[in-house]
Amino acid sequence: MALLLALLAAVWMLQGLGPGNRGFILGLRATKLAALVTVAVAVGVSTILFQTVAANRVLTPSIMGFDALYVLLQTVLVITLGGAGLVGLPPGAKFLAEIAVMSALAATLFGTLLLRGARDVPRMILTGVILGVLFRSVSGFLGRIMDPNEFAVVQSVSFASFNRVDATLLPLAMAVTALAVALAWRMSARLDVLALGRDPAVSLGLAHRGVTLAVLALVAVLVSVSTALVGPVAFFGLIVAGLAHGLMRTAAHAVLLPAAGLSAAILLVGGQWLFERQLGQAATLSVVVEFAGGLFFLYLLLKGRIR
């Protein structure tokens, strides 16, 4: 998988490179490639982590409302500070503050839900969907009462676009993602125990509540990174997690986490190369990914694979 990703990256960087200003073109391509890989790793790893905590392969952070929570946070910031005030904030400090707030809110809201309702899967799904609808409804209401110019700022972060990358956040986003993924991989053994369920994990000496809240904080960090760079993606993580489990045929997180990140990166880089270079932007990758992910979600539900 790593070799395939390296091949795709080489094709992405070198295909159609003319005799003009190669340095400028390579710089633009490298920035976009780094953003795609960062988003892919963040989405893939966060989905595996969340499914481990939820003990369910159908749930993803987006389905449970993490992305909607991020958009609501952006909307509240625009309402409070105004569009000009929000744009005037230092991007790095704003990004880190958003991650901290997201982690605290996610641990409070979703930690309580998962710790108390992990055994009641239908109720957990319903509650997560309701929370997502609530966050989106509040964001929509606030959008209707704000200035149209400020609403445009909110709209720019409300929809996924792999063609729009905030390059100013990229170095910090890459560093945060690398740190979060390293922490998650270091927790692989504890994640393997956590995946056994609450009672077996506690009987084996795992601090179940503490590990669950720590994993949710990592999920919130990774979701914040991916949403800040390209916007919310609902079902992409579901596809990636399914691929990782299907290809690796193991429950070991030391294998699943890298596999999910690599699978996501291959899909994003390969898909963006196909739609951008071969199809001339005749279609949008985010729309195709969401459509395919939605079908896969329905397939899992209809096949009764909620567990």
From TrEMBL:
<comment type="similarity">
    <text>Belongs to the binding-protein-dependent transport system permease family. FecCD subfamily.</text>
</comment>
<feature type="transmembrane region" description="Helical">
    <location>
        <begin position="255"/>
        <end position="275"/>
    </location>
</feature>
<keyword id="KW-0813">Transport</keyword>
<feature type="transmembrane region" description="Helical">
    <location>
        <begin position="229"/>
        <end position="248"/>
    </location>
</feature>
<dbReference type="GO" id="GO:0022857">
    <property type="term" value="F:transmembrane transporter activity"/>
</dbReference>
<dbReference type="GO" id="GO:0005886">
    <property type="term" value="C:plasma membrane"/>
</dbReference>
<keyword id="KW-1133">Transmembrane helix</keyword>
<dbReference type="InterPro" id="IPR037294">
    <property type="entry name" value="ABC_BtuC-like"/>
</dbReference>
<feature type="transmembrane region" description="Helical">
    <location>
        <begin position="165"/>
        <end position="185"/>
    </location>
</feature>
<dbReference type="InterPro" id="IPR000522">
    <property type="entry name" value="ABC_transptr_permease_BtuC"/>
</dbReference>
<feature type="transmembrane region" description="Helical">
    <location>
        <begin position="281"/>
        <end position="302"/>
    </location>
</feature>
<keyword id="KW-0812">Transmembrane</keyword>
<keyword id="KW-1003">Cell membrane</keyword>
<feature type="transmembrane region" description="Helical">
    <location>
        <begin position="124"/>
        <end position="145"/>
    </location>
</feature>
<dbReference type="GO" id="GO:0033214">
    <property type="term" value="P:siderophore-iron import into cell"/>
</dbReference>
<protein>
    <submittedName>
        <fullName>Enterobactin ABC transporter permease</fullName>
    </submittedName>
</protein>
<dbReference type="Pfam" id="PF01032">
    <property type="entry name" value="FecCD"/>
</dbReference>
<feature type="transmembrane region" description="Helical">
    <location>
        <begin position="95"/>
        <end position="115"/>
    </location>
</feature>
<feature type="transmembrane region" description="Helical">
    <location>
        <begin position="68"/>
        <end position="89"/>
    </location>
</feature>
<feature type="transmembrane region" description="Helical">
    <location>
        <begin position="33"/>
        <end position="56"/>
    </location>
</feature>
<keyword id="KW-0472">Membrane</keyword>
